[in-house]
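<instruction>
Derive structure tokens from the sequence
<data>
Labelled lines for chain and fold
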Amino acid sequence: MKRKIWVVGVLTLLLTLVLSGCFVKTVDELYTLPKHSDEYNDLQNAIDGLMAQGAAYSAPVSGANQQSVQLADLDGDGQDEAIVFLKTGGDKPLGAYIFDLIDGAYQNIAVIEGGGTAFASAEYVQLDNEGGVEILIGRKLSDQVIQTLGVYSLSDGHIVELMNANYSEYTLADLDGDGNKDIFLIRFDAEQAQGVAELYRFRDGQMAREPEAQLTAGVQSVRRIVVGDLTRNVPAVFTAGVYPEEGIVTDVFAFHGGSFQNVTLADEDRAVQTVRNYYVYATDIDTDGLIELPELVPLAQTENSDDGDSLIQWYNLDLAGNRTVKQTTYHNFSAGWYLKLPEEWAGHLTVARGDEVSGVRGTAFSGYLYSPELAEPIFTIYAFTGEDRDQLAAADGRFVLSKKGDVTYAASFGTDRRAKGLTEEDLKAMFNYIHIDWNSGET
């Protein structure tokens, strides 16, 4: 079924400059529907009638759908219903008003009412094998971290509530492999000392809850949620949980063998990672289609190295908690780049501030066999800016690694035996940029 959601709540600021001055629409006018047809005029008139009774637009404040008026085919008849998010008074001030096109005119056929101070989010998802999409509505409860999630379907002109639960964070993932999305949510509340994860799957006309699984003890909140394959054909949800003192730990949840479980509880070697002022999250670092988990490996300290500098070993975890190391990297977060390194270099590498070239101090990677004090340079990486950056990058035995914006990255080889086994193309392939999540500003 085509599940594209057309958004029609257009928030366009109309500023028309004319000889007599400027005309600016009011806030309520900015939320109105564009006047495209008689049907939309009828819908706008119906909304205006609700507004006259004291209702006000209340668009969801987060997520992909942040419009006061949205369109989705809720009943699977091939025709979109209009969902209007309004706020009124009373015990249940938040209302999602469902309008259906009947005999050429939009009519209000149902209202989804609920308590709270604002709509947190709205999503439209196929949760069963029937026609139409279900609507997931999140609601904020005052200033509390806990929110409520309601899931509803439209059947024969009536709204049916499939589930309602409190949550701190949630995401959608097909963990049972039936082709429909399941609902994965995390909840922290005062009544429980430990955060819990819950999985809801569509069964017998309802969203059935699996027995809950616990997060790692001590996790206070979740920083990021990633959905991907743990092993081949085994999807999972990876949650980055925050500890005090800027610690982070990853929990991995999967549905396998008929049960919902925290796979990482079987990983006896797992430890909380102290990561100072940055976070490293589970990701498919080697693009093999599986999600790798990060573990920090401290680097040997030298006179010019930064305290607490580390390599990152990326590993796969199977359902039994067994690890397979997949990749070793060094991330220079402040500079925005990272290197993929040979696994055997771990335990025999130092990273320090290198010699200064035209005001630019490089990052020197040096290798050793027994003592870091005897380390010899493998290569040094520089970041040149300014009009002469390309000339500096190619001078004195250096070569260009990459260019990005007004920065030219360069490198030079050292005297360590590991350098003899590398070519310029090898080092260029090892060099990568750190991806920034523009929604969070994090890696």
